[in-house]
Amino acid sequence: MxxxxxxxxxxxxxxTTLFNALTKAGAEITAYASQTDxxxxxxxxxxDERLDRVAALVGAKKVTPAAIRVQDVPGTGPALLGGLRQVxxxxxxxxGFTPGGDPASDLEQLxxxxxxxxxxxxxxxxxxVEKQAKSGDQAVRKDAEALAAVLAxxxxxxxxxxxxxxxxxxxxxxxxxPLLTIVNGPDGIDLKLEAELAELPDEEAAAFRDGPSxxxxxxxxLKDALGLIAFFTAGEKETRAWTLRSGQSxxxxxxxxxxxxxxxxxxxEVIRWNDLLDAGSHAEAARRGTQRLEGKTYVVxxxxxxxxxxxx
Length: 312
Hints:
- By secondary structure, the chain is an alpha/beta fold.
- It folds into three domains: 4-49 and 67-99 and 177-225, P-loop containing nucleotide triphosphate hydrolases (Rossmann fold); 103-162; 247-310, Ubiquitin-like (UB roll) (Roll), CATH 3.10.20.
- The chain contains twelve helices and eleven strands.
- The protein has helices spanning 15-23, 49-58, 78-81, 103-133, 138-155, 191-198, 202-208, 214-226, 250-257, 259-263, 273-279, 282-288, and strands spanning 4-9, 40-45, 63-64, 67-72, 89-95, 179-184, 228-233, 239-245, 265-272, 292-294, 304-310.
- A five-stranded mixed β-sheet has the order 2-4-1-5-6, sandwiched between helices. It has a three-stranded mixed β-sheet with strand order 3-8-7, with helices on both faces. The protein has a three-stranded antiparallel β-sheet with strand order 10-9-11.
- It starts with a strand and ends with a strand.
């Protein structure tokens, strides 16, 4: 399953414009979204020049970059923000275009909105658990006590990033997620321009820019915040990049590709992408000894090319 990021922001900050710039989805942009509107969902690809070079070497017919799932909810408030509890990180958009605007104040307001959403979420869960605790079940009573302590922490206007204890299971708070800020304006990123360029072919868009895409930097920051690495699978039919958390194993990489591959994992052939390019082929890399066999517990490194052997 792809990692996911949620976009948050005050009205008219440019949330959907950022969504379109990242995903090229062309979602409708309205001045005031209705609370009943559905979230926009799309995929943002992760540019990686290593992928194209590996694909060219093996003569791949199809090249598929890694991607991050992006969700843009139509507003703030506990109910709407609650739809982002399963995402891995948040992108906070602040208005830097409006005359007299104050992006720093907007971002502080957003943090407060996230805090209020967590407070509402914990209070409702505590209410349910307290009713169950009347049965006398000691485990449930402990859950209620833990939730009450977390609620008191939030009501004191403290985000859960400053909570030092263990949080109740499956709480999925918003205030513990990595929060990356983006100012939509001359002192940040011109999201309207980036969204317009996203509608052009890559070559044309690059010709309009003075340098690299500002969105590539956003994706890089996301990768850093989430501790992501990229690994590759290389074949003539398709060469593809995949994301993985730093420190994860070859077995977890197999599961990222397909659960059946993880279930039938035997071992995997591993080679660094640059070693493969230097050798010119997998066969020559094996002859040189730069391609090796690894087991399930091998910790995948950024830039590894994996060929996983499995049997289901």
